[in-house]
Each structure stands twice: as structure tokens, then as C-alpha cells.
Amino acid sequence: MRVRILAVGQKMPAWVESGYQEYSKRLPADFQLELIELAPGYRGKGADIARAMRSEGDAMLAAIGKNERVIALDVKGKPWSTEQLASQAEDWRMAGANVCLLVGGPDGLDPRCLQRADQKWSLSALTLPHPLVRIVLAEQIYRAWTLLQGHPYHK
User: Fold this and answer.
1) Which pLDDT tens digits describe the chain residue by residue (155 residues)?
2) Which CATH superfamily is domain 2-154 in?
3) Is 49 within 8 Å of 43 (Cβ atoms)?
4) Which one of the record's GO molecular function terms can you name (predicted)?
């Protein structure tokens, strides 16, 4: 099974890269985690935010693989505990599905991406910085995998 994170934003600080890599490298080849960074839409002075979001949405929709299960990260989505995430991951694996997690830019996901999603997941009711979301996702996916393996990391 492959889990891909499609995230708006490039050129992250070293602490983000390091944090993400720390957890993604721990996962085995049969539970692979991959990060795809997408260019953010233009948000300079006088920018049209809707246009920036459309641009991000175009890139995100084009990057979704054929037959991937699409999960949109959205504050209005359903919150999952780690145990529920592990259960979801086991369901995905048993169905033979690869998964694509969508992480929007500073203004969230383009509405078309939300419509395309098979599920909507909320990491928290808190507003999290987008770079931190990558690390939280990688850690929680690793934690869910360890839970499925009966590994003591989860405790």
C-alpha cells in the first residue's frame, strides 16, 4: 500500500523536512509514505485568492493517481483517533487501495478537491500551520502502522 501526501507548499524549513523524514523512513516498503509538494498559487499584493486556490486545485486534481482513495484534510471533516486511523488504514490495505491525502494551502482546499474526496478528515479543531501538518500526518501514519503491527510505540 502506498500513502501519498499531496501538499501545497514548497521549500519547507529544515525542521519540517527532518521531522517528516524521521517518520516516513520508519515505514516499511509495503506501507510506503510519499510526499508530493505542489506550488502554491500567487498570493502577492492584489492577488485573487480564488484564482490562487483554483490553480492549486488544478495541480492537486492532476496529481491524484488513478484508483487512489482520496482523503481531504479539512477542519470540517471527521476527526479520527489514532485507533480509528489504524482501522481506516487496515481497511485501505485490505481493499488493496492506495491512498492520497490532500493538504491545502493557506486558504484551504479548492472546493473541487473537497468534492473529489472520498472522505474528509480533520486532524484537529485547531488551526495548524501547514508545514506542521506534514509532520503530524507522517507521525500519525507511522503510529497507526505500529498499532496494526502490535508494536509498543503506540503506547
Assistant:
1) 999 999 999 889 999 999 999 999 999 998 999 999 999 998 888 889 999 999 999 999 999 998 999 999 999 999 999 999 999 999 999 998 899 999 999 889 999 999 999 999 999 988 888 889 999 999 999 999 999 999 876 56
2) SPOUT methyltransferase, trefoil knot domain (3.40.1280.10)
3) yes
4) rRNA (pseudouridine-N3-)-methyltransferase activity
